[in-house]
Structure formats: C-alpha cells, structure tokens
Amino acid sequence: MSGNxxxxxxxxxxxxxxxxxxxxxxxxxxxxxxxAEREACSLALAGGTTPRALYQTLARGCAVDDTxxxxxxxxxxxxxxxxxxxxxSNYCMVQRMLLDHLPVQPAHVxxxxxxxxxxxxxxASYEQCVRDVVESGEDGIPRFDMxxxxxxxxxxxxxxxxxxxxxxxxxxxxxxxxxPVLGRKRMTFTLPLINAARNVIxxxxxxxxxxxxxxxxxxxxxxxxxxxxxxxxxxxxxxLIALDRPAAKAAGLKPA
Length: 256
Ligand code: 6PG
What we know:
Layout: E1 7-13, H1 16-38, E2 41-45, H2 52-61, E3 72-76, E4 78-80, H3 90-97, H4 119-133, E5 146-149, H5 165-168, E6 174-179, E7 184-189, H6 191-194, E8 199-204, H7 210-217, H8 221-226, E9 238-244, H9 245-248
Parallel strand pairs: 1-9, 2-3, 2-5, 5-8, 8-9
Antiparallel strand pairs: 4-7, 6-7
The structure holds 6-phosphogluconic acid (6PG).
The site of 6-phosphogluconic acid has 14 residues, from loops.
C-alpha cells in the first residue's frame, strides 16, 4: 500500500477457516510485495489463540509457496512477563507453531525481553531494536510492513488495555507496564507505532467479540475512548479488519 491516506477495509467470511485462508493469502502477498519493493519485510506478530490457525496454515504451505521468508524480520506486538520457553510466552507459541517450520533466519527473530529485571529499560531497548531494523518514515517512527493484531472482547489490542497508561501513550513506541485487570506486567507496542505501519491486519473471530467489533465499525466517538482497537488508524497505511461471520454479526455484516 502506498499513498498518503489511511484506508480501512473490512472482509467477512463465513467461517474461521475461510477468513484464515483469506488472511493467509493477504499476509503472503504483503511479504512478497515488501521484499520486491524494499528487499526486506518487517512483521510484528500477535499472541492469543485467534492467529494460531493462521500460523499453522502459513507453516503448512511454506514448502510449496514462494514467500521469501529469509528476507523477513519478525517482531512481536506484545508479550507476557514470562521466560521465552514459558507456555504463556507469545514468542514460544509463534516459534513452535510458525517459525520452527519456516526458513526465517534466526537472527531476524526478535523476541520481546518481557521478563527482564528492569522492564522499562528492556522496553526502551526493544524500541531501539525496532528503530535499528525497521526503516522510519518522515515523522521518525519506524514503519512496519505489517502488524498482525488480535482483539480481546473488551476491545484491547496487543497489550493495550482500556483506560491504561498504554492506551494513552503518545511518545513511547514500546512500553512495559502493570495491567491492573490482569494483575501482571505486559510489554506492548503502543498506538503511535501501530499507526505508523504500512499494513495493519486486525483478525477477529467469534461471537464474544461481536459487540466490540460493531462499536469500532460504527465509529462511535465513545468507542475511541474506551476501546483501544478503535484507535487503530494508520496515518499512511492500510487497516484490514478480517472477521468471521459470528464476529461480524452485531455489526450486521454478512460474508461476501
Ligand atoms: C495476547 C495478545 C492479545 C490477543 C487478544 C485476543 O498476547 O494475548 O496479543 O492482544 O490478541 O487478547 O486473544 P484471543 O485471540 O486469545 O482471543
């Protein structure tokens, strides 16, 4: 995607399997296009359960598709305060389900150091790592080729929870903070970094997310204040909201 305007597209498919297949094709297309244009592709991946089917589909197809995985740089949009081999670690899940099966160069994989002793320093060093690898736009903010996000039923993305310091952050691109509703610390990308991306894919499935999806799509002013996902608006990029039918139900959208 190029140009100077943010754009938003919503794609609805009947089932989780169908929307996964659709996003898989788009995902590979963005990698191919980025490598063709800039000889590299920077991705930030999501944790949670929703993208697992996508990761499995990408992993299964890699033997036969022509995605230039060796030119891909992999980052993570958020992480829990656990070690990299912990069952709750997003890095561990993504490594097992996706990266172990792909010819991505190990030096191109950048786990978040979310269990470090000094988490503020660790977040600052991860931000620096992003700056070192991902080219910045004119505003000085690195522009990921693609950021994949899931969404919680409360409308949170990455680890930007509603009414937290992360939801209000305007300067830091990566931060660590105590999330009151979890009683735990998380490291996360912030909205300024997400909104600098060339492509953001918000993949949401399941009826429990339908209410939040409807509010985001209705562009309710209130939604912007209470749902971090409503704050996704790439300044010079494209937002794709990919839904299965149950997630699109309350918004009154049907599969194409
Ligand atoms: C995480 C996330 C988080 C996730 C949502 C949705 O690490 O948990 O990156 O933002 O995408 O919580 O999670 P589910 O896909 O499990 O519903």
